[in-house]
Amino acid sequence: MNSFVGSVFPGAVWAAFDKNETVIRTYGRMSYATDAMPMAVDCIFDLASLTKVMATSMVLLSLAEDDAFDLDAPIADFFPSSPHRQVTIRDLLEHRSGLPDYFPKDQIPKGRDAQDKWIVDSLGRKCDGINTTRYSCLGFLLLQTIAEQLGGAPYDALFQERVAAPLQLTSTFFKPSSQYFDRIPPTEKRDAYREELEERVLGRLRPWPFVQSEVHDPAAFCRGGVSGNAGLFGSIGDLVKVGHCWLKNGEGVCSPTRFREWTQPRYSGFRGLGFDVAEPNGPVAEGGFTVGGAFGHHGFTGTSLWIDPVRGIGCALLSNRIHPTSTGEGINRARTHAIIQSLAVLDSTDSRGSQSFA
Predict the structure, then answer these.
(1) Are 50 and 43 spatial neighbours (Cβ–Cβ below 8 Å)?
(2) What is the Cα gyration radius of the chain?
């Protein structure tokens, strides 16, 4: 991973694990500043779209275990203004709702109610055909609101109660408090667009040059930092705990049968219910994880968590690859290398029973 430091990201934390051991290594520094601190095991990262699987899918799995909803219930049951009864919860999870991938950059509504109304008003013809999906962050904003209606509590509270507490996650949460600021690597340099969002949402500008300790994703930021598509922050240790839960088929959150159902490939062969499934020629498959069997997700900020249940191993990568800008390339090569390294380390007899911080 050292070959990616300085070209793809300033630093990263990587982990490989199976049911018997965990190997963790750190690389580089928290930023490109000359006095930047070395990347550390306890650094807390903006997880971006890992929120979709670590929070939204897991919360809904827990609610499904309580028989709180039917996957095929129309979302119009939760948004009465919507006339589109053909779009279901399942469609949102499988990215088959037909929604666009995101808001137009200059048209992100401020606040949840306004965002939800914009999304519901944008619903039209859902994806047709067995091999048709359209990846959409917007569907997961609606899933956040649906989860709150089903669970009778705010989304971040549902995550804490139904995921973080049973899995004993100690440094994964929404809206980090100021005590964690120095442990959170900065992401993108604040530009005029970010400053406009800050003026709209906060009524003031942040005093630091980079986005730090606040969610990078604009829609999540406009929702107050708590969102179904992004907003979760977490450490490598907690990602390993989630990975172990996944290796054990949802242990602590839901039944093994239900978890396997949600992580099986469906339309196009590479989407589960909220989860992505390794596809040919993708970075996960190129690294050696099982096509059509490995599942997980990537995050825009340079994060990923993947499990290969066939091999019984997992790989997590946390980086701030969008520092200082989001235009950099090479993160998929780094993700492929992370998988290759996981397979090599866990297959090595020298590493058995060890935990490495290098």
Answers:
(1) no
(2) 19
In the numeric block, the tokens 């999870």 are attached to 93
The residue type found at 311 is R
Cβ atoms < 10 Å from Cβ of 182: 12
For residues 169 and 241, the answer to whether their CB atoms sit within 8 Å is yes
Number of compact structural domains in the chain: 1
d(CA 331, CA 250): 28
Best CA proximity match to 247, nearest among 322, 184, 198, 315: 315
Give every CB contact of residue 158 below 8 A, 6+ residues apart in sequence.
59, 147, 148, 151
Residue for token pair 């709180």: 68
Q: Where are the beta strands (DSSP E) in 30-104?
A: 45-46
CATH of the domain at 93: 3.40.710.10
Give this prediction's pTM. 0.95
22-31 tens-digit pLDDT = 999 999 999 9
Kindly state whether residue 356 falls inside one of the protein's structural domains.
no
* Boundaries of domain holding 9: 2-351
C-alpha 100/C-alpha 102 separation (Å) is 6
